[in-house]
Each structure stands twice: as C-alpha cells, then as structure tokens.
Amino acid sequence: MTENPEHSNHHAIASLSEMVRLRYGARELTGFPQVQARQMMAGGHRSRFRGRGMDFDEVRIYQPGDDVRSIDWRVTAKTQTPHTKIFREERERPVLVVCDLRSPMFFGSQRLKSVVACEVAAALAWAGLNANDRVGSLVFGPQHQAEVKPRRSHHAVLQFIHQLQDYSEQLLQPSHDQFALTDMLEEARRYALPGTTVFIVSDFHDVTDDCERQLFELARHSDLNFCHVYDSMETELPAPAVYAVSDGDNQTLLNTADGKLRSQFEQAFIDRSQRLKRFSQQLSAGLLAFNSSEPVMTVLAQAFGKRRKGRRN
After folding, report:
1. What predicted TM-score, i.e. pTM, was given to this entire model?
2. For residue 16, what are the β-bridge partners?
C-alpha cells in the first residue's frame, strides 16, 4: 500500500501511513468497551442473552420452560426445590464508526479538526478489529458519503482509512454542506444493527434539540458514543485585534476586542458542549473530548487503555 508523497507531507490531508500506524497503538486499548451485546451471533463479548453456552452464570429456581438437562441436582436435593443452571453465552458486537468530514471540520489553530477526526476514527476501527469485532463505517463529506459494511477484515479497515484520506482531501475545495447532523444520525440508524457499538466522530457544531429524536432511536438498540473533536480557538477568540477571516468564498474583518462578541462566542461553545453532555447522560452514551492540539491516542488510552493493578475500573 503506497501513499502519494504530496499527501504524506500535506498537513491539511489525513496521512494514510499515520492512520495505518495507529493499529499498533490500538493494540494497547485492551479495555475497548466490553458492552453487553444484543445480536444473536457468536463472538467475543458477553451478552444479556442466557442459555446453554460456555460460561456458567448462576443457579436459580426452576421455571416452566427451562431445559430439564440443566437442572442442578445437588442444589435441588439440598433445598428440596428444583433449581436450574444458567449459562451466559458470548455474542458478537459489531462496531460502526461514523466520521464527520464536512466543511466546519476544515479548521484548526495547530492541527485541522478533520485530520484529528480521521485519526480518531482510524484508531477506533483498528481497536474494534483487534477485539475481534466486525467493523463498519460511514464517512460524510460536504456533498457525498461513503460506507463500508461491517466485516471482520483488515481490508474493511484499510478501505475505511482510504475513504478518510480522500474525503479529507476534498475539503481543500470549498463547497456547501449537503448534510446536517440529523441526516448523519438518520443514516447511521439505517446501518446500525441491534447491538452495534456506534462511535460518532464530529465537532457537533450543529447539534440541536432536533437531533434528540434521532439519537434516542439510535441509542435504543445500539451502544452510543460521542467523540467530540474541537480546537482551542473555538473555546475562546484570539487576542484582541482585527483579523481577516474567510469561509472560502467570502472574507470579512473580525474585531476580537469586542467584549460582547467574545462573550457570545465563548458561550456558544459552552452551550454546545453542555447539550452534548446532556444527551450523553440521558442516553447513557459515552463521551470523549479530543482537543485538536493533543495526540488522539492519549485520550483513547485514558478511556480504553490497560488498567494498573489495584486501580478500580
């Protein structure tokens, strides 16, 4: 697998070689979410379903319909009440990584949010594969989307990271966004099978209360996780001065000495972060924050890395 030398040295384009290299760091994410799967397929994660499986779970009073072959005769003889053994089976947990590469992600004071998002998405995909899960993906650009159906295959992850690089490159050409966050969530619902662990990697710039219904429906049958990518400059305007700013089409002057403007700008980020946190709490969803100036593996290692002995999980 080769990478265009121009791409590898272009800081505005996600590096293919760097995203491939993340597979080594992903091996250290041994605490990658051991969620309770809901899908009726064999796999490497414990499920809520109980039946005849590999691991003994508990003994309880016999109930009509229980398999008589599972009766625990020792406990039954001791208590004079029929008891049955319950086993916990292992199930598969697919992973779906949804990456937002729309126009607002093409921003960063040190590193572009789009590049950071690609690295986060790639690391999660490698971690899912290392956990022996089927990994699928959705990538949203300003005008197009791409998907990879969940597969337990290196080729699926490599296909995904190629898409990430291509879509990050497309951001070099300014264009209007066709998709809103609500559209992305609705599409994710179509791809997420029951029991899927879903990671949404985005800056969530357009997260609104209108997203609540889509998030609720997605969280009903999936284990939802938010990966919030942001830049320090989004939390606070730069030092007071007059700056020329552009969206790629239009240019204007921004006076950051305006106290009211600074306050409104900072409050907008706070409101967005609090709304995301509220959704996370209401939906029992995971929430990870990635500052674009920091290595993505630092955050992922804190969340899913190896636990020290004696440390409580």
Report:
1. 0.79
2. none
